[in-house]
């Protein structure tokens, strides 16, 4: 019998609850087992790999920039060297958001605009206007995530800025300094920072040609950085994986003091004469070393590179005019066809094939010695002797003198000039070549011809690199170029003596270049004037000329050879027709700078013309 009002629990509900509890306990045990298993796997089997992954996530690899080698002159004076600077950067959007949010939470803190103004004012002050206040504000107010501003900021000043304002970063930059400015710039060239390579790269001149020697090799470092900020290095975490290898220094044969003087005097002379361009070379007569190689127009490698970046003294070829007569003179003396005092009856003109060639001054038939043919610069007399020499012997000798091929000096863009091969000659070609027309050469090649005569008939290819100096101080001398015997010592001495007649000033025996004479010194040299091609007619112009001079000082014991070229001088002054006065000025400086002894005796007056 069942009592009313008494509850009774169903047996089925109690059983269900027990089963659910057992299932829950079983699931919990399973989860714990799986978790423990995973933990064991992570700690026992994958710990090393995961640790490495974590390290990689916060390690940043970077370059250790190699120090670029210096370029020095023959006395060790530095013409180019490397320095370091910084480029500033910021994250404008993050900076704005961070400071505006902080200001909203605490109005006593500065707004982003106020903080940016403080930064701009401070940078303007510390850098003394190198970056203006407005330039900084423009960068910080730009709507970008990342921006650079400021070029070549001094490293110590950049440190002051980043220490005071951690939101401003400073990135390493290597810089190239040129303490001599424009002196030798067309030789040295220029280099600048290449961000994509994280190094300074030579762009023009020897900086480019010798880049592999100067550059060195960047090293590799790793450092821990804050999450998401590869530029924020955690102090004490930097490690060097591979150290940087510095570049080697390059020592030149150039005398930078002489280079300065030659550049200045060449530029002044070009302005005075109205020349479009002018170039000069000073060679050591015995070694072929280039002491100076200058152009009237140059640039500042430490400034903007907007013009005059080339080196016309080695890249631009021209027709030398009568300076080229030394080839015929040397060949004729070498083969015994004439002697210095051989008298030639020289008419006012000569026929060669279909051409009539005359001298620069009108005359009837006159008795000139062969020395006088050079001293008076007679085209007719030169062609008379050249016909005795013959076309093939002339061509072969011109090649020995180095024409039609580059000198191998190692400067970028060197021209080989032009010497037409005999198979391309027409009947009238040999009316031009012996008098320095119809062929072309650089001022460096022209100076090289006269270095041959000054050096007893042996041509030494010119060089501008003296040595490489390794990072450990080891000096590796550049290989000395092998000399080329062009003519005999006797021939060279004879021609050298004949060329003294060019600069002599004696009654009825005056040469074409007496302005080149230097009191107390014997001087040998040769003047030259060559017509330029008129592009409108393809013929020689009667108005535009190349004016040249090549000479040696002193003639009795040559120490230096000087080659000069003026391109189309137009001024109505006497200097516009000759470069002899410029040679005098440069030779005078050479004798004083290098304490060259006076010649033991004056040069004897040579007979140029019989009367």
UniProtKB/TrEMBL annotation:
<dbReference type="Pfam" id="PF03717">
    <property type="entry name" value="PBP_dimer"/>
</dbReference>
<dbReference type="InterPro" id="IPR012338">
    <property type="entry name" value="Beta-lactam/transpept-like"/>
</dbReference>
<keyword id="KW-0472">Membrane</keyword>
<dbReference type="Pfam" id="PF00905">
    <property type="entry name" value="Transpeptidase"/>
</dbReference>
<comment type="similarity">
    <text>Belongs to the transpeptidase family.</text>
</comment>
<keyword id="KW-1133">Transmembrane helix</keyword>
<feature type="transmembrane region" description="Helical">
    <location>
        <begin position="21"/>
        <end position="40"/>
    </location>
</feature>
<dbReference type="InterPro" id="IPR001460">
    <property type="entry name" value="PCN-bd_Tpept"/>
</dbReference>
<dbReference type="InterPro" id="IPR036138">
    <property type="entry name" value="PBP_dimer_sf"/>
</dbReference>
<protein>
    <submittedName>
        <fullName>Peptidoglycan D,D-transpeptidase FtsI family protein</fullName>
    </submittedName>
</protein>
<keyword id="KW-0812">Transmembrane</keyword>
<feature type="domain" description="Penicillin-binding protein transpeptidase">
    <location>
        <begin position="279"/>
        <end position="587"/>
    </location>
</feature>
<dbReference type="InterPro" id="IPR050515">
    <property type="entry name" value="Beta-lactam/transpept"/>
</dbReference>
<dbReference type="InterPro" id="IPR005311">
    <property type="entry name" value="PBP_dimer"/>
</dbReference>
<feature type="domain" description="Penicillin-binding protein dimerisation">
    <location>
        <begin position="64"/>
        <end position="225"/>
    </location>
</feature>
């Amino acid at each position: 019998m069942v009592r009313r009002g008494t509850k009774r629990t169903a047996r089925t509900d109690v059983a269900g609850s027990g089963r659910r509890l057992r299932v829950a306990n079983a699931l919990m045990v399973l989860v714990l087992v799986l978790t423990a298993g995973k933990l064991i796997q992570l700690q026992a089997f994958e710990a090393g790999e995961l640790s490495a992954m974590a390290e990689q996530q916060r390690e940043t690899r970077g370059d250790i920039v190699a120090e670029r080698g210096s370029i020095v002159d023959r006395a060790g004076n530095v013409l180019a060297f490397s320095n370091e600077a910084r480029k500033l950067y910021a994250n404008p959007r993050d900076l704005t958001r961070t400071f505006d949010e902080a200001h909203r939470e605490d109005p006593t803190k500065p707004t982003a605009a106020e903080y940016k103004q403080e930064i701009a004012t401070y940078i303007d002050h510390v850098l003394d206007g190198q970056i203006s206040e407005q330039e900084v504000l423009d960068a910080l107010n730009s709507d970008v995530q990342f921006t650079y501003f400021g070029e070549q900021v001094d490293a110590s000043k950049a440190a002051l800025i980043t220490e005071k304002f951690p939101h401003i970063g400073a990135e390493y930059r290597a810089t190239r300094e040129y303490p001599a400015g424009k002196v030798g710039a067309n030789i040295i060239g220029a280099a600048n920072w290449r961000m994509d390579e994280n190094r300074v790269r030579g762009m023009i001149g020897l900086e480019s040609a010798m880049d592999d020697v100067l550059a060195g090799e960047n090293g590799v470092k790793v450092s821990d950085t804050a999450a998401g900020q590869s530029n924020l290095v955690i102090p004490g975490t930097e490690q060097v994986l591979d150290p940087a290898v510095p570049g080697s220094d390059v020592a030149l044969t150039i005398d930078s003091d002489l280079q300065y003087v030659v550049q200045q005097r060449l530029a002044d002379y070009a302005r005075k004469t109205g020349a479009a361009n002018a170039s000069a070379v000073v060679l050591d007569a015995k070694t072929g070393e280039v002491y100076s190689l200058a152009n009237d127009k140059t640039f500042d490698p430490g400034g903007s590179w907007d013009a005059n970046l080339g080196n016309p003294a080695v890249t631009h070829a021209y027709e030398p005019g009568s300076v080229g007569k030394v080839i015929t003179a040397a060949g004729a003396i070498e083969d015994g066809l004439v002697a210095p005092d051989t008298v030639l009856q020289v008419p006012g003109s000569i026929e060669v094939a279909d051409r009539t060639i005359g001298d620069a001054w009108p005359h009837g038939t006159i008795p000139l010695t062969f020395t006088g043919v050079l001293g008076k610069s007679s085209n007719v007399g030169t062609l008379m002797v050249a016909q005795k020499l013959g076309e093939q012997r002339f061509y072969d000798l011109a090649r020995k003198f180095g024409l039609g091929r580059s000198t191998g000096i190692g400067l970028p863009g060197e021209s080989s000039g032009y010497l037409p091969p005999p198979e391309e000659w027409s009947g009238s070609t040999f009316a031009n070549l012996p008098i320095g027309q119809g062929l072309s050469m650089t001022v460096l090649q022209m100076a090289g011809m006269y270095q041959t005569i000054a050096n007893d008939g042996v041509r030494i290819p010119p060089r501008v690199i003296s040595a490489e100096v390794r990072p450990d101080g080891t000096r590796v001398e550049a290989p000395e170029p092998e000399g080329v015997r062009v003519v005999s010592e006797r021939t060279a001495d004879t021609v050298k003596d004949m060329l003294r007649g060019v600069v002599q000033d004696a009654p009825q025996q005056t040469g074409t270049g007496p302005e080149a004479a230097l009191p107390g010194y014997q001087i040998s040299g040769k003047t030259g004037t060559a017509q330029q091609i008129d592009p409108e007619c393809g013929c020689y112009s009667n108005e535009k000329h190349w004016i040249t001079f090549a000479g040696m000082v002193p003639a009795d014991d040559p120490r230096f050879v000087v080659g000069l070229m003026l391109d189309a001088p137009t001024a109505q002054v006497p200097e516009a027709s000759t470069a002899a006065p410029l040679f005098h000025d440069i030779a005078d400086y050479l004798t004083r700078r290098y304490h060259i002894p006076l010649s033991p005796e004056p040069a004897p007056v040579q007979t140029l013309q019989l009367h």
